[in-house]
Amino acid sequence: MAGEPSIELTGYAGEIKDFQDSSILNVSVHPGYTDKNTNQWVDKEPQFYGVRPLSNQAKDALNQVRQLKSQPNMSVKVLVNGSLSKRVSEKDGKRYENWDVAARTIAVLSAKPKAQQSQQSGFQQSQQQYQQGFQQPQQGFQQPQQQYQQPADPWSQPQDEYGNGQI
């Protein structure tokens, strides 16, 4: 793998394909940018990578991803570091370019349930909360008893040549 480009990417774990001697984790990356004119987020085309773990650490992390993905509707965010290579294939007369990563490191960054789309309107949800006994808090906001004070910066005080307090 000498001379191959190195890549580090953050994306979402997809399907895991198991083969006789290895496994491939599909990772999707959703790049985008903030448009300076409109100050709005603009999504670019998603990118897909086939990640093959090389090290024992990467294989252990792949097993952790497998366990997390076995739970229903689980979204798993991963960090991948490895060597990047391009594989070209042809199917039904169409040419496909596939990006593969030989992963030295895979790390699970987060795992959480995918957002569920609610079928109820906001009015229906608030009405349901009211019927279930939703109540406003009886007491208003209270100020904290003690205000946080930032500690003094020791370097802002004049010091002697040995770094001791005030001169």
Short summary:
With 167 residues, the protein is mainly beta.
Could you characterize the architecture of this molecule?
- This protein has a 5-stranded mixed beta barrel. A two-stranded antiparallel ribbon has the order 3-4.
- About 17% of the residues have low confidence.
- The longest helix has 14 residues.
- The protein has a domain of 108 residues: Nucleic acid-binding proteins (OB fold (Dihydrolipoamide Acetyltransferase, E2P), Beta Barrel).
- The radius of gyration is 26 Å and the shape is globular.
- With 167 residues, the chain is mainly β.
- The chain contains 2 helices and 7 strands, in the order βββββαββα.
Radius of gyration: 26 Å
Kindly state the number of beta strands. 7
**CATH H-level name of the domain at 6-113... which superfamily?**
Nucleic acid-binding proteins
* Main sheet overview: 5 strands, mixed, barrel
Per the principal axes of the C-alpha atoms, what is the gross shape?
Answer: globular
Looking across the biggest beta sheet, what order are the strands in?
A: 1-2-5-7-6
SSE pattern: EEEEEHEEH
Task: List descriptors.
mainly beta; 167 residues; OB fold (Dihydrolipoamide Acetyltransferase, E2P); 5-stranded mixed beta barrel; two-stranded antiparallel ribbon
Secondary structure: elements and pairs:
Elements: E1 6-18, E2 23-29, E3 32-34, E4 41-43, E5 47-53, H1 56-69, E6 74-91, E7 94-113, H2 122-131
Parallel strand pairs: 5-7
Antiparallel strand pairs: 1-2, 1-6, 2-5, 3-4, 6-7
